[in-house]
Amino acid sequence: AAMKSYMSMFLLLVALSCAVAKDVGKKETKETTSKPKLPQTLSRGWGDQLIWTQTYEEALFRAKHSNKPLMIIHHLDDCPHSQALKKVFAEHKDIQKLAEKFILLNLVYETTDKNLSPDGQYVPRILFIDPSLTVRADITGRYSNRLYAYEPSDISLLYSNMQKALKLLKTEL
């Protein structure tokens, strides 16, 4: 008899999770029909009108062939620091404008490339890679324990670091 009640309990759970999934699906279609779907998902809120690459490999390829620096943002959706930085980044008009000169990638997972975590895998962290595909470990934020981390209050530093990444290009290539 115990087995039987487990079974019905299990079925109930399955039914519940399906119902939940359905609701989520409904809500999404309403929002996504008004906005184009692709940039929305790739930007993950960091700048919906910007062009984001889908994978690290694609980003490297594009940086190399377009001669633009690559800007990689590591973040997590449930990290309050990432959320706060994303909001400031997305609302900063100058940054959004400047970002158009970059190949852009935001990642919610780590790549296997160790060069992308010179001092550890923390979020949010932002790294620049030049078209020769060198990680510019020299472009850092203001925290010595997390060199590539930025707080919302560091947004102007991030802006000047983006300018720096672009300037390096002109002088070195």
From TrEMBL:
Compartment(s): Endoplasmic reticulum; Secreted
Keyword Acyltransferase carried by entry: no
Organism the protein comes from: Heliornis fulica
Sections of the chain in a coiled coil: none
Keywords recorded for this protein, A-Z: Endoplasmic reticulum, Secreted, Signal
Name of this chain's protein: AGR2 protein
Major location (coarse): endoplasmic reticulum
GO molecular-function terms, A-Z: dystroglycan binding
